[in-house]
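#struct-help
A.M.: can someone run this one for me? Single chain, 103 residues.
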Amino acid sequence: MDSGNSSRIVVGFVITCCAFILGACGAGLSGTYTNPTGLVTLDLRSGGKASLTMMGENEQCTYDADGKNLTLTCGGNKTVWGIHDDGSLTGPGFVGTLAKRKS
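D.P.: on it. Structure tokens below:
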């Protein structure tokens, strides 16, 4: 095997590993989050799909996680949510902190 092919194999392997690692990080967020009053529920599903329920109104959304931030896009509007070490999320405005429901 020449060094050109070896390099391609190594680069392909590294890219594949990174894709799995990044996918696993997002998957760790999957679940249902609620604020203490129960007026806000955020359901994060695999594949970057989400639904946001506020005061009984449900909207289908998408999300993307990057380090300590989650960007939620609902109806073309983007909001940035904080991801905390304890697994909770902080939303914009009155939403406050949402904790993950236990299964």
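A.M.: thanks! The beta strands are 31-34, 40-45, 49-54, 57-66, 69-74, 77-83, 89-90, 97-100.
D.P.: also worth noting: Helices lie at 3-27.
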